[in-house]
């Protein structure tokens, strides 16, 4: 577009005010444009447009965008013709600019736009070439089996879907517009008669076709009679039944109570079902089967009440042993403290009972009724040495008669 504007601007500068007699192409400084539409499927050389009806000028295609494929152009007649390889899915329009000269003066056209219209020149293609599924023999009429989809590179297209083979007894149906495959005659479904259907699905855009294969296995419904208990819902999966239990029940048939309801794990522990039992994932600082025990120096501890799990029971025993050891150590410390206090008390008491006496005090002592008396200065040292440090000789004692 920028190139186009530059060319037109130059044309205005160079040829403004000039005219070429008998020329019907566009005034170079006008904004006139015109358009033309051709099919992407036209043959090479097909006429597209005539720049001018005059035969007295020599014409030039001075501009084409995009520049490929190159449109044909006759400089004497001014005819524009289609190239080979037009593709509406790639380029939807082209723009052109022309000039005409009588040998002396030159004029330029306005912009010619050629639009490329779509035709159905691309086939539809299925997203997958085959699909396998399994249904049970109790599904109802209208049961959706598969939704076939095909893509088409054409700008616009209409695809239609049909079953072309394998639909024994018209057991199945497919929507022509949407490609949705359903069960049409459910009463035909019998795994003992036809355990497998192989359907050929075709898609067409009216010109081109594609096919895919759908394999449908038919199995007996294991949910009839319903094996699930306590209001559970039953489903078939890979040749067996699956019970979706309601809250509070577990087990293959939902016949067992959920051990996590009510919540057995305390102190923010998390309960998970483990077989027919449960396991508590304890919060930091707690341990034990139900996270009721304080854990010392431990992080999260997972325990279980599964009697078959010796390892978890051993963990509980270890926790108890640690607790007992700590209790014993504390008791010993307390007893030692009590013993020390008692010992100090006894020492103090004995000290008071046997307080050292001075020699004056002992001098005052007399023994009566067969006791002994002492003579001053014959027994005791001159100082106040305690009594226990003195030996009294027998000669110093006189028995009173
Ligand atoms: Ca098509
Ligand atoms: Ca097309």
Structure class: alpha+beta
- Please tell me the overall pLDDT: 79
How many separate domains make up the residues? Answer: 4
Number of contiguous helices: 3
CATH domain class of the largest domain = Mainly Beta
Bound molecules: calcium ion
What is the number of strand segments?
Answer: 28
Kindly report the oligomeric state of this protein: single chain
CA-based gyration radius: 57 Å
By CATH, the topology of the largest domain is Immunoglobulin-like
Unreliable residue stretches? 1-24, 298-317, 353-401
Structural topology:
Layout: H1 2-15, E1 33-39, E2 47-50, E3 58-65, E4 72-73, E5 79-81, E6 93-101, E7 106-108, E8 111-117, E9 124-126, E10 130-136, E11 144-147, E12 150-152, E13 160-165, E14 172-174, E15 180-183, E16 196-204, E17 209-219, E18 233-237, E19 240-244, E20 249-250, E21 256-257, E22 270-274, E23 277-281, E24 286-287, E25 293-294, E26 302-304, H2 310-353, H3 359-363, E27 372-374, E28 397-399
The structure holds calcium ion (2 copies).
Overview of the molecule:
- By secondary structure, this protein is an alpha+beta fold.
- The protein folds into four domains: 2-117, Sandwich (Immunoglobulin-like), CATH 2.60.40.60; 124-219, Cadherins (Immunoglobulin-like), CATH 2.60.40; 259-354, Laminin (Ribbon); 359-399, no CATH class.
- The chain is built from three helices and 28 strands.
- Strands 1, 3, 6, 7 and 8 form a five-stranded mixed sheet that branches. A four-stranded mixed sheet has the order 10-17-16-13, with no helix packed on it. Strands 2-5-4 form a three-stranded antiparallel sheet, with no helix packed on it.
- The longest helix is centred in the last third of the chain and has 44 residues, at 310-353.
- It is elongated, with a radius of gyration of 57 Å.
- The relative contact order is 0.07.
- The structure holds calcium ion (2 copies).
- One calcium ion binds at residues 120, 122, 124, 152, 154, 157, 205, 208.
């Amino acid at each position: 577009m920028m190139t186009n504007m530059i060319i037109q601007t130059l044309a205005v500068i160079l040829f403004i005010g000039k005219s070429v007699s008998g020329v019907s192409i566009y005034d170079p400084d006008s904004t006139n444009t015109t358009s033309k539409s051709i099919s992407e499927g036209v043959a090479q050389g097909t006429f597209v447009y005539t720049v001018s009806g005059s035969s007295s000028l020599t014409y030039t295609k001075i501009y084409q965008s995009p520049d490929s494929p190159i449109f044909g152009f006759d400089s004497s007649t001014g005819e524009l013709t289609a190239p080979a390889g037009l593709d509406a899915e790639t380029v939807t329009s082209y723009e052109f600019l022309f000039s005409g000269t009588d040998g002396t003066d030159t004029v330029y056209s306005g912009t010619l736009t050629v639009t490329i219209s779509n035709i159905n020149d691309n086939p539809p293609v299925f997203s997958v070439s085959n699909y396998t599924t399994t249904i049970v023999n109790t599904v109802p009429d209208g049961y959706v089996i598969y939704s076939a989809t095909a893509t088409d590179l054409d700008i616009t297209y209409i695809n239609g879907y049909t079953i072309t083979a394998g639909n024994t007894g018209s057991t199945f149906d497919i929507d022509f517009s949407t490609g949705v495959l359903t069960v049409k005659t459910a009463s035909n479904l019998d795994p003992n008669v036809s355990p497998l259907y192989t359907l050929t699905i075709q898609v067409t855009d009216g010109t081109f076709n594609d096919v895919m294969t759908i394999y449908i296995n038919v199995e007996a419904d294991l949910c009839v009679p319903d094996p699930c208990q306590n209001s559970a819902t039953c489903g078939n999966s890979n040749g067996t039944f699956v019970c979706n239990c309601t809250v509070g029940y577990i087990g293959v048939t939902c016949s067992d109570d959920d051990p996590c309801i009510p919540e057995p794990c305390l102190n923010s522990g998390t309960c998970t079902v483990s077989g027919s039992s449960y396991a508590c994932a304890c919060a930091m600082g707690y341990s034990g089967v139900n996270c009721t025990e304080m854990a010392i120096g431990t992080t999260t501890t997972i325990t279980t009440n599964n009697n078959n799990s010796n390892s978890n029971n051993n963990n509980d025993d270890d926790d108890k042993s640690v607790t007992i050891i700590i209790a014993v150590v504390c008791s010993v410390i307390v007893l030692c403290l009590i013993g020390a206090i008692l010992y100090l008390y006894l020492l103090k008491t004995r000290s008071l009972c046997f307080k050292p006496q001075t020699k004056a005090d002992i001098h005052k002592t007399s023994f009566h009724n067969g006791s002994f008396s002492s003579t001053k200065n014959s027994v005791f040292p001159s100082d106040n040495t305690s009594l226990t440090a003195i030996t009294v000789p027998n000669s110093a004692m006189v028995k009173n008669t």
